[in-house]
Structures are given as C-alpha cells and as structure tokens.
Design a protein that fits this description.
By secondary structure, the protein is mainly alpha-helical. It has 16 helices and no strands. Helix 4 (about 60-75) packs across helix 6, helix 12 (about 215-235) packs parallel to helix 14 (about 255-265) and helix 15 packs antiparallel against helix 16 (about 285-309).
Length: about 300
C-alpha cells in the first residue's frame, strides 16, 4: 500500500513537471540555424530571427532575444536594450559562460553606441572574464579589442596594449584572417601612439603579411598607409613615398590621399600634393577633411612663393 502511495505521488509530480514550461528545453532548429549563420551571414540570421514568433519557454526566448540583438548589431540596425536585457537577466542566473559573455558584450556595445562608455566598460571587463571559460575565440577577440580601444581612447596605453595582445592570441585561435589582420593593426597603432615605432612597424608588417596571404586587401591597404605615416613622422619621406606608391592610386581612401598629399608637400612636389589633398576632401571624416583643406591652403601658398621667386 505504501509503495502504491509513493508511485501515485511520483506520477503527480511528473505530470506537474510536464505541464510546466521547461527552462532546459532544447534550442529550436530555427535558433540553431540562425546561430550557425551569425558570423558568415548575419543578414540571413536576422531574417530568420525576425520571422520567428518569440518562443514561450525561457531558454529559447532568452536565446532568441540574445541572437536577435547580436544580428541587429552586426547588420547595423538601431535597437533599444529591451531584448538584450531579457537575455542578460536570464543567462546571468545560469552557468553558461558563453551566453553570459555574449550577453555582457552586447550590453556593453549598446551602451557604447549611446556614448555611455563609463557604464559600458564594467560589462566589457566582466565579459572578458567569462569568455576565458569558453572556446568562443571570435567573441573573445571582439571583447578584448573593444576594451583595448577604450583604454587607448583614454590614453591608458599600457592597459590598451595588454588587451590588444590578448586580442591577437584569440584572433589567431579563431583562425579568422580579418580578425588576425585587424588585431595586428590595433597593436601597431598602440605602439605608434607611444612612439615605439620599431614595434609599430613590426606589427604593421604582420598585418600586411596576413592581408596578402588571405586576400584581406583592406587590411593591407590600411597597414601600408599607416606604415608610411610612421616614416613620414620620422621625416623619412623617401621611404614613406616608396611604401605609399605600392598602393594602386585608385584604391587609396581619403586618409591615404591626404597622407600622400602631405608626403608630396614635404618633398616640394606641389602639383601632386594639391591633386591628392583635393581628392581627400571627398572624405566624410572630419579630421581628414580638416587636414586636407589645411594641406590645400599651405600647398597653394608654398607654390605661389616658388612661382614668385
């Protein structure tokens, strides 16, 4: 009789459990598909997630909110923090380090987009600790590079370089060529700001190598341009000009044209300087525009002096 009583109790408990939404329900096929597409095709992931009806069980709903936040961010879609808050509140109660790191990272990036960097930084730092417990090297690279940029902006260059070097390690583990090249670029810029030019040149060369091997032309172009900039700062104008001329002129962006204009100005090839300064005025970057117009003014003035002499 006693055994029958316990069996009945167990059956009742089982029925109650079955009638309750499970926080441990497996991810739906749609969510798994969206997550698989997130890095190679974020627009496709966004389409899948936006077409979904928000799931009812907690795990799938929190995952949907987190992935939709990630997809919108990757596709440059404006958003509030309502979705990421759903994900953050759910996953921070659990022990899934990858989901915690991803939720914290997106809390941080949305705050940073609103220029609330002081509020964003603690989330980035917490994410950097959580992601160490995972093998999500792509996410780790993103977190550490973002922190490095914040410290660089605050002129805390030693902290910045420390995070950039961590970002390099994670980029290499991710085997993502763009992340690898970009991590070398960031480290090079960090050393250049500190005027440790030999180290900066070493990392620009690494970025150029990655760009050339894997066809990441944008990485190579930026690295060549920045490397020429270092030689220009050191007044090694011939070396700088030799490097910048390795770039097809049609591929030069506005900052590259401004730099080439400056190089020609320094060696008194003023017609060429005026040509490239003028091309740089097509930029929508305020600092490039300012330098380009200043260059046009000084090059025109210098040319007038030569013509009068």
């Amino acid at each position: 009789m006693k055994n029958t009583f316990y069996i009945l109790i167990a059956l009742v408990l089982l029925m109650v459990a079955c009638g309750r939404p499970s926080g441990n329900a497996p991810l739906s096929a749609e969510l798994q598909r969206a997550e698989d597409l997130m890095y190679p095709h974020p627009d496709s992931a966004l389409h899948i997630l936006q077409a979904m009806t928000p799931p009812k069980d907690e795990l799938n709903r929190a995952t949907w909110a987190l992935l939709l936040t990630q997809a919108k961010y990757k596709c440059f879609v404006d958003q509030s923090d309502s979705l990421v808050n759903i994900a953050h509140d759910y996953f921070m109660k659990g022990d899934d380090a990858q989901r915690k790191a991803l939720a914290l990272y997106h809390k941080a990036v949305l705050l940073k987009e609103k220029n609330e960097v002081d509020k964003a930084l603690p989330y980035y730092l917490q994410a950097s600790e959580e992601v160490k417990l995972t093998e999500d090297y792509r996410l780790a690279y993103l977190i550490y590079s973002h922190v490095g940029r914040i410290y660089a902006y605050r002129k805390l260059y030693s902290y910045s370089l420390s995070y950039y070097h961590e970002a390099i390690q994670y980029a290499e583990l991710s085997k993502n060529p763009f992340y690898m090249g970009d991590s070398f670029l960031e480290a090079a810029k960090g050393y250049a700001i500190k005027k440790e030019y030999d180290e900066a040149l070493k990392y620009y060369d690494k970025a150029i190598e990655v760009g050339n091997i894997y066809g990441e032309n944008k990485i190579s172009l930026i690295a060549l341009r920045e490397k020429a900039g270092i030689y220009s700062r050191q007044k090694k104008y011939d070396e700088a000009l030799k490097i910048i001329q390795e770039i097809n002129p049609s591929l030069l962006d506005a900052p590259g044209c401004q730099m080439l204009g400056n190089l020609y100005y320094q060696i008194n090839q003023l017609d060429s300087a005026l040509y490239y300064f003028n091309k740089a005025t097509d930029s929508n970057i305020i600092y490039t525009l300012r330098s380009a117009y200043q260059g046009l003014y000084y090059a025109s003035e210098k040319k007038g002096e030569f013509e009068q002499a």
